[in-house]
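Progress against Task 2.4 (sequence-to-structure conversion) is shown through the following example record, which the project officer requested during the mid-term review.
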Amino acid sequence: MEQFNAVLAAIGSVLWHPYVLYVLLITGVVLTIVSGFSQYRALTHGTKVLRGAYDDPNDPGAINHFQALSAALSATVGLGNIGGVALAIALGGPGAVFWMWVVGFFGMSIKFTEVTLSMLYRNTDDPENPHGGPMWVVDKGLPRLKPQLAGLARFLGIIFCITLLTSTVTGGNMFQAWNVAGLTQQYFGVPGVATGIILAIIVAMVIIGGIKRIGAVAGRLVPIMVGLYLAAGTYVLIVNAGQIPAIFALIFKSAVSTTEAAGAFLGGTAGYAFALGMKRALFSNEAGQGSSPIAHSAAKTDEPVREGLVAGLEPFIDTLVVCTFTALIILVTGVWNRGAEGQFSAPPAVIPVEAGQWSIEEVPLPARQAGIWNEGENIFMLVEGDANDKAGNNLHRINGTVAIDHTGALVAQWGELSSASRPRLYENGVYADYVGAPLTARAFDTVVPGLGKWLVSIAAWLFAISTMISWSYYGEQGIVYLFGERAVLSYKVIYCILIVVATLGFVTTSEELDNLSSLGTGVMLFVNVPIIWIFGYQAMRVYRNYIHRLKTGQLGPEHELPSFEDVMSGRDVRK
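Structure tokens generated for the chain above:
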């Protein structure tokens, strides 16, 4: 597994090179300026469209605007908002939050553009079951620019679908199942594979019904799960209201300078915070990936810009609202730089394993300050070794697992650390390793003991299920493009099997989790961002035309607003 993780890390260093992030940020800035800050139109006109003011059952499509947004949000508002944000702060510090905000704001213009393009080029041969996404944009758009490029267009469409399926398997599926299984096992002792089987059955029951059932489920599930999570988060922030101004100051300061090590936090440079904040926000809101346009392409509308503006609301809701709540909860409660949960009275020795590899001797664990150590629990200690460019110091973790030796005593089975020089213990503390969602749960528990256990567990299940059902549709559309409708059933079976595979214990640490989930996100960006640059001017052209017609009164609702119930259920567009 260590070799596999090393390969993922090597690939990730290329996919997530700082220059890639700069290109994506520049893309968002350029689209924001050229569109005259389409973010404003998304927040104003987009909300009216979402409310059902322009829903028309006679337009081509399968679901209404609200259901399309809910389906897309159910893919983005997921464990990236709970586990991904926690991961970014645990590794990169508070500065990562600032860069999440940046991605969220400029991501609104990116999302608007890519969805508008997909609506322009979607396949409506079957008006009740349209197909769309970047693969159709390049497949149909490139030959229109130059007919002799038809072969290249098909090739690029295939490449995008391959990257789409890679992201579907990793971030959209296995990341979700892994997090839920770990959280459920930690709090309730349920074996991970049992969680995987239950998740697979639930997801299968939804995705068999196609996009109409996914839209119907998402339309009801997303408002409930987001509302529940934000209500609990608001309570935590009210309890810690006095700390919020200082936390915001820390976020801004850490975004441009190195954050010093404290407690469980190793320290983080501004560059590392930038990379993690951008990466985790992109994983969460999917701006630039080209995934959300697939869900929005199923919307009933004859105005591409209209759905594009609705889509612009996604990064706002996902990153600027939900992710911010998670980040503030983790920061104000102090769990990101928490203290050690056990202290050795006599420090264990750092021992050589082989040339350049070091570990810690196996000795009985010290008593835990609150509660007891559990067999199989992940822990770590801090050591000083070679320079750590990410932390801006020479601190490193040596990860371990709680085990029981032949005498019945609790001991730590420590992993290894590569270091040219002999490391030495930084301190005698033993830390529990709360990876991803468990760190957010720990934050809730510090305010109301047991709140994290139930709230985050429920939210994690809901978020994971909603994400997996939407990503299954994304992958399905990639399969349709590659192989046609005949391959869909086999794909759905494999997709559900992979949910179980993800819970079998192949991924165990923060770094492995980060590397795995980042793989799919990165490869999609490499294909989709060039598509946005090549065809983006077309989205801007139709956008300006639409806004002109809107300002001159040529566009307007032709019916009274439907009830919220009709919008959520999709009854307002049923013939």
